[in-house]
TrEMBL record:
YcaO domain location: 65-448
Annotated signal peptide: none
InterPro entries for this protein: TOMM_cyclo_SagD, YcaO-like_dom
PANTHER family in alphabetical order: RIBOSOMAL PROTEIN S12 METHYLTHIOTRANSFERASE ACCESSORY FACTOR YCAO
Name by which UniProt lists this protein: Plantazolicin synthase D
Pfam family, any one: YcaO
PROSITE patterns xref list: YCAO (PS51664)
Length: 448
């Protein structure tokens, strides 16, 4: 348990050693130039080492980080590179993985998060000839990864290919049961800090999935009700002359969660971009989401200027990566499909939201886990720290909430399974009736 937060200086001492042009996990790093309509902050790019040479599995090579603080921006870029690298390391010859069926593990007395808890895909999706994944059940042989339930630290097992970032073919004998992403993955100097960051990401992305697929127009935060947010806007956003909308998605989990929608009212260059964040307080969630949204727009500008925008596309064929989702909204006509995100004129006061106690990582983690447990959702964490990263003093953790919706990537493999995406908005009083599968938003999302 962590009784105090790691300082920026302490983080620098650990992560700085992982960046080196010859032997680093980060082999190349650079500061990015700021355009006149970019956020008034700092942005770093980081290129990772070739993990395919080191342990036979490729990892995401290009990563980045942004912050109002240049040191924090650099550490964010290093941290993202480390988390993607470490999550690609598969501990096949260790006691944290095993091979068998869900039924086998249960008969051995193991607790599992299996096919009935993940609820990734709707039954009818498997009948679509374009659908890329195999149906699985309690008799499907798979590699399983050990983790722990956050409430009681009890051991739990779940399919390894849904936890690590590696192609299913890297797990000998595994069928293709789903598309793994970095959803809920984070690097931290302590295990608990990494788990908290991953948990916030899991909450944020579930909220966006529900907002997008249910086509909800939610209230927006009134920046003028918070001196802190007003200062943030005046200092970092207003000089860009862009419009910032802070859409409140907290209702889905009760954890402060914001969708930042950036709009360019002046030209056709990158007219729209989004970012999202959850945090202990509504103000911090607003700041994080706005920063992410602004840097996403920088990415959109790059794709548009390079002529990479996707037009006249076949969604099933052409939407296969997060880059494709960005290119789809790079100044194209489809941008109007996202207008519903900012259609609500209702403004909410920042003072209406009580923050979670964040005096220490231990207190915040306990409060978040307890809060979600009372709603019937149980957090699980998985230690994905590779041996070299562990030796350096850092951790990589994946936090999941079975039943919550992870962000999807493949259009033909949209994660439309489970009750939450169909009924949660209805139970919250946001819509008049539950959704049917065919009523969900058919347009690919713009999430980066």
């Amino acid at each position: 348990m962590a009784n105090k937060w790691t300082t920026l200086e302490e983080s620098w001492e650990i992560l700085d050693q992982l960046a080196d042009p010859y032997v680093g996990i980060v082999r190349r790093e650079y500061r990015k130039l700021r355009d006149v309509d970019d956020i008034w902050g700092h942005s770093y790019g980081a290129h990772g080492t070739d993990s395919n040479i080191l342990f036979g599995i490729p990892s995401n090579s290009y990563n980045g980080g942004g912050s109002a603080n240049p040191a924090a921006a650099r550490l964010a870029a290093i941290g993202e590179t480390v988390e993607r690298y470490s999550a690609a390391y598969l501990p096949l010859n260790s006691d944290v993985v095993c091979f068998g069926t869900q039924k086998d593990l249960i008969n051995e007395g193991k607790s599992v998060i299996g096919f009935d808890k993940w609820e990734m895909y709707a039954v009818t999706q498997y009948e679509d000839p374009n659908f890329p994944h195999d149906r699985w059940n309690e008799d499907t042989k798979l590699w399983w990864r050990k983790g722990h339930i956050a409430e009681n630290n009890e051991e739990v097992w779940t399919p390894a290919q849904l936890i690590h970032i590696a192609n299913y073919t890297e797990w000998p004998g595994d069928p293709d049961i789903g598309h793994a992403t970095s959803n809920g993955l984070a690097c931290g100097i302590t295990y608990q800090e990494a788990a908290i960051s991953g948990l916030f990401e899991t909450i944020e992305r579930d909220a966006f999935m529900l907002t997008w697929y249910n086509k909800l127009s939610l209230p927006q935060i009134d920046i003028n009700t918070s001196p802190r947010l007003k200062h943030f806007y005046e200092r970092y956003i207003k000089p860009t002359s862009l419009n910032l909308h802070l859409v409140d998605m907290s209702i889905f989990s009760g954890v402060p969660t914001i969708l930042a929608v950036i709009r360019n009212p002046h030209t056709d260059l990158a007219p729209f971009a989004i970012g999202a964040a959850s945090a202990h307080s509504i103000e911090r969630a607003c700041e994080k989401a706005a920063i992410e949204g602004m840097y996403t727009r920088t990415w959109v500008k790059t794709e548009q200027r390079l002529g990479n925008a996707l037009v006249d596309v076949d969604y099933h064929r052409d939407i296969n990566s997060f880059e494709d989702h960005i290119k789809l909204y790079a100044g194209t006509a489809i941008v109007k499909e996202a207008d519903f995100l900012t259609a609500s004129e209702k403004l909410v006061d920042v003072k209406d939201y009580a923050p979670f106690d964040d005096r220490s990582p231990d207190i915040l983690w306990t409060n978040l886990v307890s809060h979600l447990s009372k709603q019937g959702y149980h957090v699980a964490t998985f230690d994905l720290t590779s041996p070299d990263i562990k030796d350096s003093g850092a951790y990589v953790v994946k936090s999941i909430i079975p039943g919550y919706k992870p962000i999807d990537v493949l259009y033909r493999g949209r994660m439309l399974g489970g009750e939450r995406i169909l009924k949660h908005s209805y139970h919250l009083g946001l819509v008049d009736k539950p959704f049917k599968l065919e009523e969900l938003n058919p347009i690919p999302h713009p999430f980066p």
